[in-house]
Design goal:
The chain is mostly beta strands and 272 residues long. Helix content is 10%, strand content 38%.
Length: 272
Amino acid sequence: MTELSYYPVKGCAGVTVAEARLTPAGLAHDRSFMVVGATGRFRSQRRDPRMALIRPAISDDGARLTLTAPGHGAVGVDVDTEGDRRGVEMFGRAYRGIDQGDAVAEWLSDVLGAASRLVRVPPEHDRVTTGSTPGTAGYADGTALLLASRASLRLLDRRLAERGAPPLPMNRFRANIVVDGWDEPHTEDRARRITIGDTDLGYAKIAIRCAVTMVDQGSGRKAGPEPLRTLAGYRRATGGGVAFGAKFAVLRTGRLAVGDEVAVSEWGASEL
């Protein structure tokens, strides 16, 4: 394993680390917070690409969150895990969230240019994720973990070069785990059970990609049509959309670290 990242606030910048604790809902603190609009609907880089410029930092115990953004300084939050719950909505599904107060709401509204509030997953959050292996997650789009391989990115970069397009960094795909050492691109599609460190992962589904992959994570600007245009030429999914990476549920919690061996103990056929 060559990279390990978690995303404390859904849609905002990630935190790359050398090691992390794996919980039933994924890497500790991953997608524990979400930015919502006035109606409670979640905000995403699909419509708010500037979210990529918001950089979260969270204490190990999850009690203190700090957000920074260019030109807007920083705002600190003493994380509330006991306050009133409010209804929030993500992809048409209703969830609950704990509002984190007016100060961070005003800061986010200023950065994004639209009324926004920050909510946290409540302790009683009991979301069940779908796929071949069921599991749970915070406010992630799908399941607890997104895994992608360097071999898959190298193939995409070759395809981009054939179109005269530049290579893309892996951060376009906002993966939690990046694996190197697999010779065949998209090996992650066929891995059904993986052991990393003292943790076990179970395959849930291929990762269908959206317009967020067209956002330059460094500038917070849409830079389309790549990679979706090129992926559409060779990675179309049977059920629609294009795929890159695979999603996994947590079978056994523990710690994992960059440099850990990625051992596949069960294989299956690709869904593509």
